[in-house]
Amino acid sequence: MMDPPPEARRWLLAGRVQGVGFRPFVFRLAQRFGLPGRVQNLNGLVLVEAAGTPSRLDAFATALIAEAPPLARPSLLVASRIADLGLDHFEIAPSDPSGSLGVHVPPDLFLCDDCRREMKQPQDRRYRYPFINCTQCGPRYTLITAMPYDRANTTMAGFVLCDDCEREYRDPANRRFHAEPSACPRCGPQLLFKHQNHEEHGLSALEAAVASLRQGDIVAVKGIGGYHLMCDAHNTGSVNRLRNQKRRPHKPLAMMFPWRGDDGLACVRRHGMLDAATAAALVQATRPIVLLPRRLESTLPECLAPGLAEWGAMLPYSPLHHLLLEGLGTPLVATSANISGEPVLTEADEVEKRLGLVADAYLHHNRPIARPADDSVLKVIAGIPRLLRAGRGFAPIEIDLPTALPKPLLAVGGHLKNTIALGWGQRAVLSPHIGDLDAPRSRAIFQQVIEDLQRLYGVTVQEVACDAHGQYASSRWAATCGLPVRRVWHHHAHASALALELGPGDTWLVFTWDGLGLGEDGTLWGGEALLGRIGRWQRVAQLRPFHLCGGERAAREPWRSAVSLCWELGLDFAVPAADVKLARLAWQRRLNTPVTTAAGRLFDAAACLLGLAEVATYEGQAPMRLEHVASGEADAIALPLQQEPSGLVTADWKPLILALRNPQLSVPERAMQFHRSLARGIAEQAGWMRRRYAFQRVGLTGGVFQNRLLAQLALSALKEAGFEARLPENIPCNDGGIALGQLVEAGYRYG
Description:
By secondary structure, this protein is α/β, with parallel strands linked by helices. The chain has 21 helices and 31 strands. The strands form five sheets. The chain has an eleven-stranded mixed sheet with strand order 7-6-14-8-9-13-10-12-11-15-16, with helices on both faces. The N and C termini lie far apart (60 Å). It has four domains: 87 residues, Alpha-Beta Plaits, CATH 3.30.70.100; 175 residues, DHBP synthase (Alpha-Beta Complex), CATH 3.90.870.40; 121 residues, Nucleotidyltransferase, domain 5 (2-Layer Sandwich), CATH 3.30.420.360; 221 residues, 2-Layer Sandwich (Nucleotidyltransferase, domain 5), CATH 3.30.420. The radius of gyration is 27 Å and the shape is globular.
């Protein structure tokens, strides 16, 4: 029987197929099957053409998906027969930048095992080279200047490959075949160490930085997405000096731990409690900061996270970080080099100018950073890693939309923890964490990211969605951008972001608990339950409203929430740290005392009433201390539910305030009772709603549910009551996720 005649076929692949070694993979695959043809980067897509017998082409097509590189996520768009190619070999064709609908911008990648082993071999020409990478590792998002992903469209364009690197780049059998950021000590980026008037270059710079850290210095180190301020985590004097000079007296400091031997987590295990989920989160390719309980026997100083019982830990993810940690042999503080709340700094002159009073020395390098990307943050809650901050390794986060948007749409997020979202067709992209928009630099990066994402994805927005609060910097930008603006209620955006991730076609009862957000009735919400689905939300329950003394000042002065709640009940509360006479007069006259239902302020008040925090030096300090002190078996207290004439159900916090002032229980017991009572209150509100409304699932979102104890107690109480309850996983539950909620809420409601 004769073999069937040869034929030619074309495949068009979408998904994550650029920046992950996909073209070299296709090339080697074609050689394995003996097929002539070509592979070509389009603008976000990959075109593959090959000729051969039908059986070989079938096997090749299957392998394109089944055997794709670990970091690739290909999906087949088109498969068709074509005319004979007339080729006798397989080639990688020059990229074609036309078209844009399939663009996928890859995130930054950690150092792979192959490159790490190679970096440690003395005979290798990249021995101890801090910028080693291949098709499976290295920076992407922070060095891409345009798509398609080719070296000329990256910040590596100015580094001309030497002969050896050029041969590797052209060799199909080499790991660096078409690895766009590829370089070596001869042709690639170099280190520069500066300490006062002294400079060192290359490996001498690395050795000088290690020596500087060992002697207790604070060193600003340039990484993949920006600079870190680093010091020896065991050196209490250095840690306290860093705190004093950065004016960060209490906020926890993230640490980077050495990766050693067969058990790369050995050092982390000595200082933190790891379960399977936490360990897996630490070692994943994104290499995030993971919040984990500290070990009581840890020798690390308490000043790393004052008043808290957990660390922020991460593993080295760049070759430079590996070399620093191996040289020092001890955990390093690795906190963002920035002015508090701003995006991480990326330029050497700016770091030296703005942080010159903080850093003793600088470890620079000359590989430009196209845009900043801070470290991502995860927290394991109910056994599942939850993303709290989308940054390096995770973002841009790409999401398929269930329904096509009528027009390309930009959502500009909130004022704090800002991110932006870009949507077109059935695709959406969430940017990395930008920061708080109080400072001019934050607003400049905010605008840069808006422009960059449109350029990289080839999308021109036609409308803008923003928060309904007109005084947010993001909302002010929207009002002056010259495009039609869709304003979205803050908590509707929270609810829609959760629904988008976990079930856009379902009807949800969503508890949206956070600090403050403008509500439909002009008051400041933050303790609501919303019923419905994307584009159709109805407030059905709330925490009891109260007048908040001092308005926005209460976020950093928990005593204001405490006295406000006490005064609502006709109780007095003495605050040693503040003179409350003037505040009480203003509260009685209703001056700067907005009405709020905010659960976040309720947590602030509880912490203050228990003597844990009267003032806060960073956002969330009081609730975090309340969570970490809570222990014991005190029973939950029922929160009375009352239905208003409008049908809105109100949960009364009065019994909680009275219980917090009960000296018969210890402070840890009262803190635990507070958490248990709110969790029970959530389940009871859901039960009340079940008797009146039809809904399929219960959601928990908003910054308050970053509290592991509350979230786990609430999920457990809801499960016991027969509900399916969910908490966001891949989109931050805090304001870092509301841009996606704004996007779909505006797009679906007004489309």
